[in-house]
Amino acid sequence: MNNQLQSIGSPHRQAEELAAELRAAQEELRAAEAELAEEQAAVNAFRMHARLMLDDLTDAIAALLAEKQSLLTRLELQRQAGDDNPLGPDADPVPADDDEALDLLPTATPRDKAAEKRLYRELARRFHPDLAEGAAELAYRTSVMTAVNSAYTAGDIQALYDLAGELEPGEIRELAGIETRELRQLRERILQCHRRRRKVGRRLQALREDKTARLWRKARTLDDKNEDWWTAVRRDLEAARARLEQEVTDLWQQVEAAGLIDDLNAADMKNG
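^ that's the sequence the OP posted. Answer follows.
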């Protein structure tokens, strides 16, 4: 119907159909915004409760992970030194730190730079000025791509998600082709609802990819309803802390065997 407004039915009938479509779009938008607000509030409340319940273990594990990574890095640098490596030139590479304890912590989700690049390429394909058909569309594409480039350069992923909800250039062309002012305004309001709906959808998607949100959903779907979720998480975190403590102890022994203790002490004195 949207592309046939000027050939089917009277302007009055077209206006009635667009008004009905607008009401439906507004209702979908309200429902989506309510879902986002409800889920965001629940995740925020969960995050605050997690800080009260788990902060001691979270801080301890974060410190152990940092110490473990520091020791792994020191050993890897020594391994790459080749013949000067006390562990031998054929020593196995030190594995990258991909600790499962990270998945248990309600901490901020690290930036996914690969996902940001994919989103940037998607936006560039949609809004590149070279694809414009006419001066008005060229101005629109240029405006959007300027904002995209600024957001990407600044690392503002939320702004990129918002820009992904902008009107498609084809929708701009459609509006320009509607002669009646009333119909054009109705269609523009519908497209604005769709635009806001896309933005809400992107934000909900980003929220659900957040680590704390994943833990919140896990807590809601706990298989054993008779067990307190926080008790179960503390038990897992305490086990992770004990494991990390042993791993750090083992790494210190490797550092001592490699003769790196003096280097580490010198670095500590310099930093102090």
